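User: quick one, sequence for these tokens?
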């Protein structure tokens, strides 16, 4: 997703500036005369213009870099920005995030009102954007029950199967490795939720999930739609300049409905025919009391299955793409991990790793931890809502503020992670073993408080078994130019709420003839 994040200057400023000024005047006047704590200072931040606030300071892309830079400039782990009367709070440290999102979770567990995503597109059933309340709790409880850490082993066989069968596609079509990764990770998530038959390539369920997550990410990227700041813009006709969101609405609404309903209905049909396979939908529906009105519970099951499918795919795809990127640019890391795997498994092609090998592969685990730290999938995450006015470190946090945890800054903290910009799995090890004294990346990589991703352990498992399986059998290297020299490429990421590596090329080959035989034999099973 490469739509500019937190940018209010992408072609709509001239068309809506008068509305912004009017709205800002009303909101600022109202706040000034209503708050009882106005004498307390707001957190530091860039200097604000009258009425417009920081609208000209908002970065068009990679906003987490600007947020971290401002934190250093003002020597503060909490900063404040104002856009047309709306307050943005950014937390640049784990300490601040824990205090607000964990200790004071009652005040920071809700979400801002996503006018485009929820009100216009109809994605108001997503727990990631749903306000804190009974509907959110119903879906979150089912999500937690089904993806509880004690249930992890139930999903490992599907992870192993999909990833092992992925290997032959990688070596036969290395130029399409990113599509292969998306299909593999999407297939794992789909199997957990629905367990419907999937095509080997270009499966319509997987394609629809990619389109759906793209629509969600675009709509939740702050600044992507001016209507989020100026709500009256929602009433503009489709032909009006700046109303491009109106022209895309019919397709996005149709996509939302299809994604939510179609796979669920297909599973229900298979249950009636006796051909459905065990999954979230079948397990939960079979537990309903047939003698009671279960309409509400059925909707919760339908929504939760769709959330597992969508959420399980996109964040893990980001991590697996980062894995290939880092192996390409840090070949010595790849070599060291493969040496460890060869000591445990035998020479390439002897056997494939499984989860029982994890205790004997600390360096591979360190590689996975470093991927989560170095290339976080959601650098700023989705905003939390300050339900009531609050005070932190002597600074006032106004009621209704959108509060972001800058995951990127937290996982680049030089005090916790020396030389943080360098990809270095060694930082997680001490005397050849995992060092428990190093702050684990999951403190920030999967969100905070009651909004933390409940399936994070499943995502980490998928990334670990993928990394171990690929490293055991395949060598990732730089492609060669026409003169036979390695083709150099920059390390680049796309901006957006969900951060993926920019497209890059790599050479993917079996580590040995014996490894290729093993790869092809697994594909035929």
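Assistant:
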């Amino acid at each position: 997703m490469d739509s500019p994040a937190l940018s209010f200057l992408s072609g709509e400023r001239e068309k809506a500036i008068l509305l912004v000024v009017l709205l800002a005047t009303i909101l600022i006047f109202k706040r000034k005369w209503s708050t009882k704590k106005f004498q307390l200072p707001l957190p530091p931040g860039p200097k604000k213009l009258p009425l417009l606030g920081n609208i000209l300071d908002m970065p068009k892309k990679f906003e987490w870099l600007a947020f971290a830079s401002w934190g250093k400039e003002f020597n503060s782990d909490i900063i404040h920005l104002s856009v047309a009367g709306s307050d943005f709070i950014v937390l640049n440290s784990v300490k601040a995030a824990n205090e607000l999102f964990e200790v004071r979770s009652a005040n920071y567990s809700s979400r801002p009102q996503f006018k485009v995503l929820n009100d216009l597109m109809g994605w108001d059933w997503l727990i990631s954007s749903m306000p804190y309340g009974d509907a959110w709790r119903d879906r979150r409880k089912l999500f937690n029950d089904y993806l509880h850490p004690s249930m992890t082993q139930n999903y490992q066989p599907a992870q192993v199967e999909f990833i092992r069968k992925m290997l032959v596609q990688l070596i036969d079509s290395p130029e399409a490795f990113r599509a292969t990764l998306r299909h593999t990770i999407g297939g794992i998530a789909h199997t957990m939720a629905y367990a419907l038959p999937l095509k080997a390539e270009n499966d319509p369920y997987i394609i629809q999930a990619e389109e759906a997550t793209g629509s969600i990410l675009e709509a939740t990227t702050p600044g992507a739609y001016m209507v989020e700041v100026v709500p009256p813009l929602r009433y503009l006709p489709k032909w009006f300049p700046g109303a491009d969101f109106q022209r895309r609405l019919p397709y996005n609404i149709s996509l939302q409905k299809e994604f939510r309903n179609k796979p669920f209905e297909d599973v229900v049909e298979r249950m009636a025919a006796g051909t459905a396979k065990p999954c979230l939908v079948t397990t939960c529906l079979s537990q309903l009391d047939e003698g009671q009105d279960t309409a509400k519970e059925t909707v919760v099951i339908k929504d939760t299955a769709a959330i597992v499918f969508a959420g399980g795919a996109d964040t893990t795809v980001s991590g697996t793409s980062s894995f290939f990127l880092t192996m390409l640019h840090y070949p010595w890391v790849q070599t060291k991990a493969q040496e460890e795997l060869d000591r445990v498994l035998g020479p390439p092609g002897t056997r494939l790793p499984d989860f029982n090998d994890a205790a004997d592969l600390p360096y591979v685990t360190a590689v996975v931890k470093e991927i989560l730290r170095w290339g976080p999938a959601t650098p700023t995450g989705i905003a939390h809502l300050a339900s009531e006015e609050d005070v932190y470190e002597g600074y006032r946090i106004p009621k209704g503020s959108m509060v972001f945890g800058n995951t990127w800054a937290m996982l680049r903290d030089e005090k916790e992670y020396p030389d943080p910009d360098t990809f270095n799995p060694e930082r997680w090890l001490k005397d050849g073993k995992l060092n428990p004294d190093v702050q684990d990346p999951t403190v920030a990589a999967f969100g905070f408080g009651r909004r933390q991703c409940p399936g994070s352990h499943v995502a980490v498992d998928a990334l670990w078994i993928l990394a171990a399986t690929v490293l055991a059998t395949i060598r990732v290297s730089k492609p060669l130019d026409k003169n036979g020299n390695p083709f150099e490429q920059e390390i680049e990421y796309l901006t957006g709420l969900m951060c993926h590596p920019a497209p890059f090329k790599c050479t993917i080959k079996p580590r040995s003839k014996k490894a290729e035989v093993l790869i092809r034999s697994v594909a035929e099973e």
